[in-house]
Amino acid sequence: MKRCAKRHPLDTVPPTLETLREDHIIQRVLCHDLEMLADGLPALPPLTAIRRLCDRIDRVVTTHFRRAEAILGNLPAEQRPGFCSLTELRHMHQMDEVHAEDLIAALWHYARQGDESEVGQLAYMLRCFFDGCRRAIALKESWIAKAGRDLGYD
Fold first, then answer.
1. Predicted structure pTM score
2. CATH code for the domain in which residue 73 is found
3. At the top level of its lineage, which domain of life is listed (predicted)?
């Protein structure tokens, strides 16, 4: 998958816990949209909508995941999740990245071919991705809540 070399303007702003919370809102909306897509199969939206969904998936896994790991890893030692916890998060993100790549390929394949015998597989792939994202969000939110209280951000 070819990535755009141009940086998004928001990528130049130093990320904070609030940035992470905002990323989670964006990710939750994406998960909701993907769940609605799965529920509506075998119908798919137009190709332009599929392209936008795929772009959003790509942005989450290429930008949001890295930013979350950086934010959490750079918290003061007292608020920072432990090394093993951060490693677990990284593994979750890696799994979600693999699911995202497979999902994007499957969405394009299904959108072009329209083979309804593959609907079950596509639905499963959609659910794997958004369930994985939601699981990682829940873990990060538990750390954000604690760090926010400790740092007086609540």
1. 0.86
2. 1.20.120
3. Bacteria
